[in-house]
Design goal:
It is built from 21 helices and 10 strands. By secondary structure, it is an alpha/beta fold. It folds into 4 domains: about 5-90, DnaA, N-terminal domain (GMP Synthetase, Chain A, domain 3); about 110-270, P-loop containing nucleotide triphosphate hydrolases (Rossmann fold, 3-Layer(aba) Sandwich), CATH 3.40.50.300; about 275-345, Orthogonal Bundle (Helicase, Ruva Protein, domain 3), CATH 1.10.8; about 360-445, DnaA protein, C-terminal DNA-binding domain (Chromosomal Replication Initiator Protein Dnaa, Chain: A). The strands form 3 sheets. The protein has a 5-stranded parallel sheet, with helices on both faces. A 3-stranded mixed sheet has the order 1-2-3. A hairpin with a 2-residue loop joins strand 1 (about 35-40) and strand 2 (about 45-50). Helix 8 (about 180-190) crosses helix 9 and helix 19 (about 405-410) crosses helix 20.
Length: about 450
């Protein structure tokens, strides 16, 4: 029988990391992360959960959990799930008087680093703020509050901060905990009359990382403990970094004094990845997939980025589905192309035809290059702006068949010869530069032509 806590915790952490890529539900993930493997014996793993809700959630994902644990231990494992109190009472197992805490060194996800965090316009502010905190813990942006919808990279940045501090300042004590786990710790410690010990453990930290802090809302005792811990750490120049699905003032049921403390530092937002960042995220995932033997075409990546860029998890899930489909239903091929992708996502992607006009082309070009419409039609001639303008003129001519003079009017009252030269220049680059040709293909896919 395997009962080594560190070994079992490592298996469960890896399992929840894999589930994190599959599940777009932070509430369920919180319950999964507070559950644990009690033991493994004769290909049977015992999973312990806190309550009936945890039991329902773990059972809901049990097939995936069985598969992941089996792969991790390189054997066939079947899991049985028990509520903690019922399990210990039924099997007569003596429970320890020790209040379990979550501040274990291997709690940090080692593969979530700044080095593999893909930066784009949607997340650059959060990345810079997080990296600054990690290099100067306790002295800059304290607390750091990162907010945004689920699946955009908040947890990645939180772990990256912890991993960087661990590497640069090995003597610093780091604690990573979720909001739901924090509430759970307060409840358990209170019942065991060990709240002071729990607070002391937090006071001793140099870096406190709390993921999904919104889950402490509405919990009066938890507010009291957290407020005390917050003041103790910040007053002693110890760093606090928090994530949430919304800004502090929008967390329903959170005390004003805590909202005020959260607002005393730096609040930064993560948004849905824009097209270029989505492409780079997909390429990063492919590069890091050492088992991948196929290449994925640029237009296929553009298709995924266009249809699944709501969040990073959606992008990763779509890519995983495509790779699964290509191997299991199409046989191993050297190349995964657009036709295969459209086949794989049949029924999931609804092709909508937007009326194609010059304003829509302008919008797509501006989104792609990160420009405003004013910049696109201005007299500015920097390389980035000029290239975007030339492509917009070319696409307007090619797909709308507008007269050169009409196109010129739409782009800052330019004359027909300027538009003609721009179109010819783009055509020449398409023929001579394969990378430029791919850019045009990506943009044309975005306007769905």
């Amino acid at each position: 029988m395997v009962t080594n806590e560190r070994y079992l915790l490592d298996i469960w952490n890896k399992t929840t990391e894999l589930l994190d890529l599959e599940i777009n539900d932070s509430y369920s993930l919180q319950y999964l992360q507070t559950s644990y493997i009690h033991s493994i014996n004769n290909n049977k793993a015992i999973i312990i959960v806190e309550n009936n809700m945890g039991l329902a959630i773990v059972n809901n994902y049990l097939a995936s959990i069985n598969d992941h644990i089996s792969r991790i231990v390189n054997g066939t494992i079947h899991c049985e799930v028990f509520i903690k109190n019922q399990y210990f009472e039924h099997f007569g197992i003596q429970k320890s008087n020790e209040v379990k805490t979550y501040f274990l060194k291997n709690k940090l996800k080692s593969d979530y680093t700044f080095e593999n965090f893909v930066i784009g316009n949607s997340n650059v502010q959060s990345q810079v703020a997080a990296f600054t905190c990690a290099n100067n813990p306790g002295t800059t942006y304290n607390p750091l509050f990162i907010y945004g919808n689920s699946g955009l990279g908040k947890t990645h940045l939180l772990n990256a901060i912890g991993n960087h501090v661990k590497k640069m300042f090995p003597d610093k004590k780091i604690g990573l905990i979720s909001g739901l786990e924090f509430v759970d710790c307060v409840v358990k410690s209170s019942k065991a009359n060990k709240l002071d010990e729990f607070k002391k453990e937090l006071y001793d930290l140099d870096l406190l990382l709390v993921d999904d802090i919104q889950f402490i809302a509405g919990k009066e005792k938890t507010h009291e403990i957290f407020f005390s811990v917050f003041n103790e750490l910040v007053n002693n120049r110890k760093q606090i970094c928090l994530t949430s699905d919304c800004i502090p003032s929008e967390i329903q049921g959170l005390e004003d004094r805590i909202i005020s403390r959260f607002n005393s530092g730096l609040n930064v937002n993560i948004e849905s990845p824009e097209f270029e960042t989505s492409i780079n995220i997909l390429k990063s995932k492919l590069t890091n997939n050492t088992d991948l033997k196929q290449t994925v075409t640029e237009d296929t990546l553009a298709y995924i980025a266009t249809n699944f860029s709501k969040d990073v998890r959606s992008l990763e899930g779509a890519l995983t589905r495509l790779l699964f489909y290509s191997i299991n239903f199409k046989g191993v091929r050297n190349k995964i192309d657009l036709a295969m992708a459209m086949d794989a996502f049949k029924g999931q992607v609804v092709e909508t035809k937007t009326e194609l006009n010059i304003n829509f082309i302008k919008k797509i070009i501006c989104d792609y290059y990160g420009l405003t419409k004013q910049q696109l039609t201005s007299k500015v001639r920097t390389k980035n702006v000029a290239t975007a303008r030339h492509i917009a003129m070319y696409l307007s001519r090619k797909h709308l068949d507008l007269p050169y003079l009409k196109i010129g009017d739409e782009f800052g009252k330019r004359d027909h010869s300027t538009v003609m030269n721009a179109c010819e220049k783009v055509e020449k680059q398409i023929k001579e530069n394969p990378l430029f040709q791919k850019v045009i293909m990506e943009i044309e896919h975005l306007i769905k032509v």
